Prior knowledge:
By secondary structure, the chain is α/β, with parallel strands linked by helices.
Amino acid sequence: MTNITKTDKRRQRVLQAGAAVASAQPQVVVYWMTREMRVQDNWSLLTAIEVAQEQQLPLVVMYNLKSEYLGGGARQYRFKLEGLQSVEVALHKHHIPLMVTAGDDAEADMATLLKKWDVQTVVVDCNPLKIQRQWNVALMKALPNLSLIEVDAHNIVPVWETSDKQEWAARTIRPKIHKRLPDFLTDFPEVHSPKQQRLIADVHPQPHAPKWKTLEKAGPKPHAIDAEIAVASGESAAHKQLEVFIERLKEYGIDRNDPTIDGQSDLSPYLHYGMIAPQRVALSVIAVSGASVNRLFDARANAASREKQSKQMSLADSAAAFLEELIVRRELSDNYCFYQPHYDSFAGFPEWAQQTLNAHRTDQREYLYTLKEFEQGKTHDPAWNAAQLQMVRTGKMHGYMRMYWAKKILEWTKDPEQAQKWAIVLNDRYSLDGRDPNGYVGIAWSIGGVHDRPWFDREVFGTVRFMAQSGLKKKFDLEAYIAQWAPGITSGTLF
DNA sequence: ATCGGCTCGCGCAA
DNA sequence: TGCGCGAAGCCGAT
Length: 495
């Protein structure tokens, strides 16, 4: 760790240049935290600190807490609120205040404050989702003289640096990411508050501390099921989970595709909320696996073939398999949402998939379920119900089941548009890591062939890859999985 | 148990 | 212009 590392300009984009106004007397620089809910290893915060230092102003961190955000409910709100509380504590050590604006007008309220403070510079997290872009546009419209700087603190290689277009598949983005990793997979500098931070006492109006009790009450009403979610939130919980995962990293290569085993990293809620930096996770995994990045990526193909044969995998093989998912596949998701405005609809599917799905529009569906039947896990298929109920009860569905789950929604719904819509609704409502590019891309892969290739033609799916329950049975003990999550398939005790 | 075919198009070699 | 190959599979032949 070095203290003098300057943040890399290539991680930044100027969304609005801003214009110095003669009468303006800016009192603070603002970091608008949205996607990166952490203090350590956060390029956005580090950039904001640098800007504050340069402008000789204290820094204020702001967060807009909406009670409704992209169809999330009480479980996500609770997770977010607890994460924010730990951000406040961590920021306090650096004398940086956190200010939360809440409610439906949270962004507008923030804009009003920015005006009062004559704020000239705001640093904001890069999030490729449409809602963040709309917020950015609204802010720039409200404050045309504001300088708005976007920082990609989520991807190791910034999304606009990796590629200037929507990538076709993992194989096309992989070499581009690998090529840039030596440049961007660097260590993080430590956080030091700006020298002017002591001046925060003179700022008018004073940024006021979040009233956590009030914010808690303002959230969505928790359902009985939400109370069962037992995932600890916050930056330190995220780091603790990373330690837990690293202990079992060697087994990851073999265990991750077995939904009856706790073999996955379980980091995705933390990655989604930015409670831990993917770059930190990558650095830690590489450090313990005792190999260089290049050596690890060379091992990727090797690991894939060993996996097929269910052979022993070394620590390096497992690390390579994990880094492929953590970096290549996750950053491919951001690439898709960044360059494809229709990332959550049929229009975003590749041409061949749209054609084949259109050709099979009128195919007879063997089963048709309502959204409620899906939601309550009341289909004829206990494997599907188990996956759904695992998600409802725990806030996460095993990664291997997610594909099967989404493909069956296509199979048992009247058309692909409705299937995609419902899959997104359910994932965003029940998964702690919902409302994320990973979720939208996973669903688009399953239903619309995004990042996939065509396979043989069949009813409903056309040439979009099909998955059958028999495939699950071959890979793991399906009965054990069903017994764990959907015992007595007809009971509807949850709802 | 294992293998080829299914089926499309990107990206690179030539 | 040709060709290899790919986000996690299925199916039937051997």
